[in-house]
Write a structure and sequence with these properties.
It is built from 6 helices and 12 strands. It has 238 residues and is of the alpha+beta class. Helix 1 packs across helix 2 and helix 1 packs parallel to helix 4. The chain is globular and about 55 Å long.
C-alpha cells in the first residue's frame, strides 16, 4: 500500500493526498543534522511528491507546516519551488502556516502534496516473472544525503520514468528496498537472499533517495538511458 489517501471525486478523477514530516534537521542548535532550510524543505517535499506521483497523481497544490520560526519560511518555500522546477510544475501553488507563538528547540516541518488521478490510471501491481526490476539511485540517510548527493536519484528522472507507459514506480523510504518490494507485491513475501542487487536492501533510503521501477523487458534500454549512472539492476530469485 502507498503512503497516501485516495478519495474518489467523481467518475473520472480521484484526489491523492501524500505527506512527509521532518524533525531535528535544520539550523537550530539542537538539530541532529545541520543543513539549510531550503534543503530540509526540498527533501521533505521530494518524499511527498514522489508518493503522490507513484500513486498516479498529478500534483496541483502543496501545503507547508512550518515549526522552524518565521525567518525560515522563505527558505523553506524556496526548497519546495526547487523541487517543483525539477518536475516542471512551477505553476503549482504553495500555502501553509507557521507556528509563531512558541519557539521550538529543534526544527520541524510537514509537507502535504495534493494531486489528481485519472480513474483509468492503474497502479496496482501483481508479480510476474516476465517483469524486469531496477533501483534508480542509492539508499542514503542523514548526513549521507548531503555528503553523497551525486547518488540521489534526481526528481527529473523520477518524473520521466513515471511518465512511461506500463511502468510502475515505488519510492524507497526508511525501511529499505526489501520492505518496499514486499509492499509492492502483496501476494508474495521476499527474503533478503531472494534479491540480487549491488545495494544494501535493508538500509534506510531516508528522503526517498532511490526508487524501484518495474517494467517490461523491451523497455530496459530506454529506462537505462533515462537513469544513466543511477541505474541498478535488481533480480528476484523466484
Amino acid at each position: 500500500m502507498r503512503d497516501v489517501i485516495t478519495i474518489p471525486l467523481h467518475g473520472e478523477e480521484s484526489l491523492i493526498i501524500a505527506t512527509d514530516n521532518s524533525g531535528s534537521i535544520g539550523r537550530k542548535e539542537q538539530d541532529q543534522v545541520k543543513v539549510s532550510y531550503e534543503t530540509v524543505a526540498y527533501y521533505s517535499f521530494r518524499v511527498a511528491v514522489m508518493e503522490c506521483i507513484a500513486a498516479g497523481g498529478k500534483p496541483f497544490s502543496v501545503v507547508l507546516h512550518n515549526f522552524c520560526g518565521n525567518d525560515a519560511w522563505g527558505e523553506l518555500v524556496k526548497g519546495i519551488k526547487k523541487g517543483l522546477k525539477e518536475l516542471n510544475l512551477q505553476d503549482v501553488p504553495i500555502t501553509g502556516s507557521t507556528e509563531s507563538n512558541f519557539h521550538l528547540q529543534q526544527s520541524a516541518i510537514g509537507v502535504v502534496v495534493l494531486g489528481k488521478k485519472q480513474a483509468d490510471k492503474e497502479t496496482e501491481l501483481h508479480y510476474s516473472p516476465r517483469f524486469k526490476l531496477a533501483v534508480i539511485g542509492s539508499p542514503l540517510v542523514g548526513n549521507e544525503v548531503v555528503d553523497f548527493g551525486d547518488q540521489v536519484a534526481p526528481l527529473s528522472i523520477f518524473w520521466e520514468v513515471s511518465s512511461l507507459r506500463q511502468v510502475n514506480i515505488w519510492p524507497v523510504g526508511s525501511k529499505g528496498i526489501l520492505n518496499e518490494l514486499n509492499q509492492m507485491f502483496r501476494t508474495l513475501s521476499f527474503a533478503k537472499d531472494d534479491i540480487g542487487i549491488n545495494l544494501d536492501v535493508l538500509k534506510s533510503s531516508g528522503p526517498s533517495t532511490c526508487f524501484i521501477v518495474v517494467f517490461e523487458q523491451d523497455q530496459e534500454e530506454e529506462i537505462k538511458s533515462l537513469a544513466a549512472g543511477y541505474f541498478h539492476p535488481l533480480s528476484v530469485n523466484r
